[in-house]
Amino acid sequence: MALAPDQYKIEKAPLHVPTLEEVAEVFRSYLPTNFAESEVEVVDCPDLLQDPFFLAERGLCGNPKIFEIGSTQYLLPLVQREKLYDLKDIAKAANLEPAYFIGAGAGPFPTYKGVNCEGIYNVKFNSTRIIEQLTRVAHVEGPDEHISTKIVPVNETRVALLGNLFGSEGNPGKVIKVHVKKRIGEKNFIETLRNSIEEKYGKEHLVGIGGAFLLVQGKAKHHIMRDFSKTPITDEEGVNNWLKFYNMSAPMIGVGTFVSNDGGALDLRVQHFHSYSTHREAGHYHYDTTPEIVEYLGYFNVAEEVVRVDQPALGHKLGRD
């Protein structure tokens, strides 16, 4: 069972909303610091239902919002298993109808015999039915710790513990297209985009962006959380020893959000993307491991509002890389 909405607080705050053209220029001017080739333009969103993205809806437009759900404080140092939230309740509170969510979060572990899992959220619904359910989970399985991935049951709309999701009506419309090749710097793809808006807006304005990218070519480091730790994890070394890391191969589709700053009292996670593939790999995106050949293609939209769900009192920031 998920927590009832009256058991936690949902706060909404407006974001600074620069034009797509302005943000595209911010990206355009910054990307050459980290990639040898880069192209940024404002375009009509392609049909993201189709190959190679396979999302649950065509576009990223219509009432765009970013959602920060829960916190790593509910996962570490020990899990708080009662922290389960239903996206249907959250969408209703946020006045998002129909609701299309993509992004990164902890998966609905009760569906998988209580085993901890990564959630790669990709679902559209309205007040009466699930329109399309393509959310995946990934977990570590067996003594060899291989990757196990599954599409969740059609009516499973819960997020556990923490999540960073981009919500919209999923409509077609204008978006920012970003295409880069050959990484020459130390930052990952999303970090480069985030640093660009941080430099432009971070001290003055909170800007939120969400969307999807394709790792077209190359490999990238990802992690999958092992099952919930039975002993407290209290530092980053403990976090890294607990996580299981994999080098995953293109094509991979990443979904999530990033922001220009942490929103001060909102305590936002500044970037968080999870990836999946049609060859049964999935997990939390870190960075590509093949800079000479890497290629990314992304489509992004600027959010108009941030929705903060069940924020804890300010505490540790473990596990937020």
What structural category do the secondary elements indicate?
mainly beta
Taken in chain order, the helices and strands follow as EHEEEHEEEEEEEHEEHEEEEEE
Cα-based radius of gyration, to the nearest Å: 18 Å
Shape: globular
- Number-wise, the strands total 19
Task: Give the % helix.
Answer: 10-25%
Uncertain regions: pLDDT < 50 for 5+ in a row?
none
Within CATH, the superfamily carries the name: Hypothetical protein, similar to alpha- acetolactate decarboxylase, domain 2
Strand content: 35-45%
Distance between the termini: 29 Å
Largest sheet: 10 strands, mixed
Count of the separate structural domains: 1
CATH architecture: 2-Layer Sandwich
The average pLDDT value, as a whole number, equals 97
Entry summary:
Helix content is 12%, strand content 42%.
Summarize the structure in words.
Strand 8 and strand 9 form a beta hairpin. The protein contains 4 helices and 19 strands. The chain is mainly beta and 321 residues long. It has one domain: 60s Ribosomal Protein L30, Chain: A (2-Layer Sandwich). Strands 1, 3, 4, 5, 6, 7, 8, 9, 10 and 19 form a 10-stranded mixed beta sheet that branches. The protein is globular.
Summary tags:
60s Ribosomal Protein L30, Chain: A, 321 residues
